[in-house]
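chain below, 603 aa
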Amino acid sequence: MTKYINLILTILLMAVLAGCSASGTKISIDDAIDKSVDEFEPFIFVESSVLNIDSDLMATGFGNDQRSGMQVDMDSAYVLQVVYDILLDSIMGIDADEFNLAAEQPNLYRQYQQLRYDRVMRLMYQKIIVDSTSVSDSAVRAAYEEQKESFRVPEMYRARHIVIAGEGLGSSEDSTQYAGMSAEQLDSLARSQVSDLRDRILSGDSFDTLAMLYSQDVNSARKGGDLGYFELSRMVHPFDSVVENTPIGEVSGVLKTEYGWHVVKVEDHALEHYLPIDSAYAQLEQKLMEGAVGARSKVFVDSLINSTQVIMDTASALIADSLHKDWDAMGYVNPDDQEYGNDTVYFKDYAEQVYSYKKFKKIEGELSLNDKEQLVKGVSTRIMLIQAARKLGYYNIPEVEAWAEITINKYSVSTLRKRFMEDNFVPSEEAMRAYYDAHLDDYQVERPVTVQHIVFADSNLAEHVRDLLTSGVDFMEMVDQYYPGDPDIKRAAADLGEIGPNDMPQKFYSAAMGTPVDGISRPIKTKYGYHLIKVLAKTYSIDFDRAKIKIKSILSKEHRDTRVNSFVDSRLDAPPIIHWELAGKLYFEDRKIPSFSQFRSDK
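prediction:
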């Protein structure tokens, strides 16, 4: 598997000192060693009273962060949080067994019901309609004879051609050499060129190559002049008669059509024939099968409609639609069948079809009582199918029940988790300021000084230009005059933008940092020459106002992690046992494996 191949390349987490506390563990590079594939079989990494977490489940937790685009520090604190998130989901899964999704989240429950309905209908349709429908060999052969004319393949030819027109010469890339020539002269020249090409073909030159080089029919030229198979009736005269009368493999004489002068080579001639039944069999069988399945489906649905009792709630129907609520009853389907029927047609389902019904019937305003009854019956078709599926046992087959259990649990976990996370926490201004003050090193700017420069080969010239600049001459005017190189790029080369200690030689950077904003440095010598540096701006750190957005996110995550950990700890009988000595064997699916130097140890 891919994950094991990746593991051979490198280890994703480094081994951790066994027995250390989870919150302060350093990931040791010295403990990281190559491991064989066998050692990466799933193993238990965490033991707890609600769930034992293996390495595969941990990999899924890591992968979830990767797929969400989350940037994380690969340290023991992150691993610990993945553990607690997995335990949270497990606890939510336990709580979900007692969660009443239908009562708590009716809209989500209806979504689940629709998905279950779709799944059940597909199964029932497959079993009752498709699997019990077949098409006999004799029916396919009979259909072939009945539809034989549709499988007739007309007489066709395959040919190549080269075409050159006088008009094409006049508008070609070489049109300058034809300037002043009349249409008649151009036409004569086109005929002459095609005739010359025919002579070359008869002398042994490749028709395909000459077509690609000279034919003005771009579409066929790129295919060596090949026109493919065609009926003669599709071709202009006299092209059609020339093709018809030229033997296979032979080259025609020069001919003219409305498109220009041609030479043609006939490649093949296929007589009119019928596609054999073996070639048409699958197409016919599928078509017959679709018709049979459609007819059987109609019979099945019609039989349901004819055997179903739909009772409209007249009192509800007499009330204007605008006064109804979603869950008002509009009718009942098979109300006397207490085991499989007695379902309600709700106003919500009825209302979803009103617009389409009115449009189809061209009705303006309120529906009549009769129209409402027809609409209720139409909406009831879905319920009839559900009742049939219940009666036939499709809602209770193991495949559907297993899917239903997993899906209800997933929706319930999602709802519970969302509720748990929605605590509307917003860190205070004081808390964000305190975090900023405690982490000032994190907000130091890597490139604190913004500069422009001019480089000179001579220090005396550099001093002279500095005197001009300090007296008020524009810096960019001096760049245009003295910066070496192409005039088009002088200004761009002179503008270095923001720089840090690793971007330029140390002498250059020190001089820039020592020069005040808007000041000009003394000439500074580097291996490139003598520099005059103009300092445009200095920014030593990101200020609090700019840092607040990121700090807010950090503190919100810390708050969220604290809530998760506290909640999980409160539900466990004992703290989870984390086998930190196995951390070096964990792996990350779907993640480009970083080198050890990219891992951050705890401080």
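The two ends are 36 Å apart (CA to CA). Confidence is low (pLDDT under 50) at residues 1-39, 589-603.
thats it, cya
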